[in-house]
Amino acid sequence: MGGWIPSIPLSGSVRVNIGGALVPLGLCIYLFVRAGTARERWRASIASALSAAAVLGLGMLLPDEPEAMPFDINYAYGLLAGAIAYVLGRSRISSFIACVMGVLLADIAQAVLNAVNGVPVNLHLGGAGALDAVVLSGLTAVLLSELLGALLERITGAVHAHAEIRGGQQVLVRTDRERGKDE
């Protein structure tokens, strides 16, 4: 719903939407700070940079007119950035961070390239409502990483662990997915 809140003008040609850019950015910062390990933060940072480059490159390769494309470009950004993030980090957290930051950084990079080439710049981060590329790419990436993770667990018969409280103490319980039994 925040995408429909009026954008905040930062300068004459730069505007930032609260729900379409600031809220997802704030969530990325929160998730980055709360990430489990320094390795996950490192992977999320690298995946964000690679996702930004991939989204920028994809945007340059595809036609300028959305009507000329047989699909919604927002989903393509999410799938591409989500795949990059999953390969690097294999977590929903790094996938979300990489997609949101990738799309925002790609938008900023495109505005800088336009300014350098003398093209008038109107940078509007977020603001396309619920179907904004930032929001859709983040959701697509999380869904993609969840589906790929579940699929890989099924294929490999991975052992899944979770914590439970037993007898007043926290116990790590391993579940063998093939047998469905606790060990």
Can you tell me about this structure?
By secondary structure, this protein is an alpha+beta fold. The chain contains five helices and six strands. The chain has helices at 18-34, 38-61, 73-89, 92-116, 133-156; strands spanning 8-9, 14-16, 123-125, 159-166, 169-176, 181-182. The strands form two sheets. The protein has a three-stranded mixed β-sheet with strand order 1-2-3. It has a three-stranded antiparallel β-sheet with strand order 4-5-6, with no helix packed on it. Strand 4 (159-166) and strand 5 form a beta hairpin. The chain is globular, with a radius of gyration of 19 Å. The chain starts with 7 loop residues before the first strand and ends with a strand. The model is unreliable at 177-183 (pLDDT under 50).
What layout of secondary structure does this protein have?
Layout (H helix, E strand, L loop, with lengths): L7 E2 L4 E3 L1 H17 L3 H24 L11 H17 L2 H25 L6 E3 L7 H24 L2 E8 L2 E8 L4 E2 L1
Parallel strand pairs: 2-3
Antiparallel strand pairs: 1-2, 4-5, 5-6
Helix pairs in contact: 1-4, 2-3, 2-4, 3-4, 3-5, 4-5
